[in-house]
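Could you help me review a protein record that somebody else here produced? What it holds is a sequence and that sequence's fold in token form. I need someone to confirm that the token line plausibly describes how this chain folds. Take the sequence as given and treat only the tokens as open to question. This is what I was given:
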Amino acid sequence: MADASVVSARLRPPRPGRMLIVTAGWGACFVGIRYGLVDAPILWFAALRALLAGGVLLAVGWCGRRPAPPRSAWPGIVVLGLVNVSVAFAAMFAGTAGVAGGVAAVLSNAQPVLIVLPAWLLYGERPRPRAMAGLVVGFLGLIVAAIPAGTGSGALSALAASVAITASTLLARRLGAGVDVVMFSAWQLVCGGIALASWAAAVEGVPAVSWTPHFVAALLFLALASTALPYMIWFSELQRAPLVTLSAWTILTPVFGVAFSWVLLNDRLTEMQGIGLCLVLAAMPIILLPHRHADTGN
């Protein structure tokens, strides 16, 4: 625990510009999934997203002559790929395919709440009272925004995705140290994508994908803007930022999701959803300010 406390003391707040890219990309992915599921089955679509994103990052890494992960890191990378990609992507796509309602969207972004106790126990990152208050306000805002939509059939799948993402965040903090972030991001996507493709072949059989321009555009957007770039940034920030503060940024993911759905899918924004999203936005400075004050005192 002493070592974890020393590491925790050296952490710095996430960089806002980078986190906005991450949360906007992840928020937009639900729109891309809804577009693409018209032309592809759930598991094959999820596998294609992971494999294409991982392949692009591998190409970037090889062209830049970035170092491959050491042998000792490979077991962890495989496990991370299974949890963060195979399980999380499958659950996320299944929840969206089941027309998941607002509560499912809340559950899929429950990581800020789920990670508090494990981050404290495993890494000595004791949550600050003000940050906890901000998390409560933010999560309450998500619930208020979700009420008009009902529970939806994808709630359990969304919760499974959130648990898997939380577990992978905790695992990646330990595994990613000393490993090139591009290659680390690439290989966990490739490993998870291979497992997803095997799962898809066993469950869905030969991939019945309609390679329409509509589907290709959705797949490229998901793989590049919603996966490759956000994951590379996320794993980079994960090695330098407190887990609770970093995860708190994901509260903005459904805010972007609602905004993109409103603009691109003509989904109506209700008064309750507007109030909920305002609560989420109000929670962010409550969560982030304590860490800034702490940094100025170092």
Notes: The chain is about 75% helix and 0% strand. The CA atoms of residues 21 and 230 lie 7 Å apart. Confidence is low (pLDDT under 50) at residues 1-7, 291-298.
